[in-house]
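#struct-help
A.M.: can someone run this one for me? Single chain, 462 residues.
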Amino acid sequence: MRLASNNLASGISKKRIMNENYAFKSDVVVAVDIGTTKVCALAGRKNEHGKLEVLGIGKVESEGVLRGVVSNIEKTVNAITEAIAIVKRASGLEFKNVHVGIAGQHIKSLQHRGILTRDNDHTEISQRDIDRLINDMYKLVLPPGDKILHVIPQEYTVDNEQGILDPIGMSGVRLEANFHIITGQITASNNIQRCVERAGLRVASMMLEPIASATAVLSEEEKEAGVALVDVGGGTTDITIFHDGIIRHTAVIPFGGNVITRDIKEGCSVMLPQAEKLKVKFGSALAEEVYDNRIITIPGLKGRDPKEISEKNLARIIQARVEEVLDYVLWEIKRSGYERKLIGGIVLTGGGALLNHIEKLSEYHTGMTTRIGVPIERLAHGYQGQLSSPVYSTAIGLLMKGIEEVEKGKIKTDTVEAEVKAKMEAKVEKEEEIAEPSGGKWFDNIFRKTKEWFEAEPDANL
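D.P.: on it. Structure tokens below:
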């Protein structure tokens, strides 16, 4: 009997260990960045030090998205399916829920003020009061076809006491707040949802991509000091402005890296794939940094003579378009009213930030300090090499926001490791067989072992 009870205790302890492992694995979150040039899927979780462990990376070319908006459902579904399949193979995980980003020219932002009159001035202001204020914002009347994506509180006012960032615990009758409200087209979000569902997945949450990018590349000090994040993507350039740690302004410019590629195609009279390779391998955003006498030779079409292109002229074409994009960025910064309050200057991220000398051009053109934002600060040791590129900023930001929502209990994760789940279920079944009450398999096992002991021949040495 002691042997049986020890086995049972051992089985329970093993079950506990397996359950703990399973719970740790189930905290894995999956994010999908559906961009104009690429679809990037990441599976990851936080380790014991609060750093991000990436368990699988799936990055494939995207052909069904135009300026951040889905333009071809079938091609987008295929790209999502392919990226997710790569992640599943790399991580050994099975999942349905994914956190996706939304962007595009249709994104707009507005400021609104909310007022809540409380019944009792003796009770403290609670999270419930703030939630009521936020929920009231979702009742705003918007232009036809638009929906609210995010409601972001700015400052609060309690009984004429202004500039309060966190009113919870204070007493007062009249609670007011300024809100930054981000809206987008219903059809755009529905198309993203449809693509994800047709790929056999579910949308756990949908977030504005520039907010996700900011989470991945900006420090808390920069957000407090005031900073403009400029995410130069393939089809759009997204701008997010922070001050005092709060999002103050968001905007989307309908120009990105693809426009630069098309300019090179027209200016150098080359094919589009050749223009993209010229931009990536030899492109510079600042013509004065390029030597005058350097020539790039590309093969001619169908036996024709090779074409020679001056690297200086290539840089001039790129610089002209990047300066135009930076003009739009400056206009948005001025429109936000925070032009002279951005101590942190500009942070460039996204695939467009890989252009040589783009940070120098930004400093010359805008007069603001500029750095390239790379999402490696949040990553655990050993992952920086794979993901140390501004291309992954949005995907890592979506992953971090997804983990945050799971930790807060707003969203449940369904990610499981197939092998662990199968082993755990088999172990549970086996333990149930051992632990069945008398008259079941447990009693039969004891009876059989006792019978074998009596029937066994006596030991000759005794």
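A.M.: thanks! The longest strand covers residues 146-158.
D.P.: also worth noting: The longest helix spans residues 311-336.
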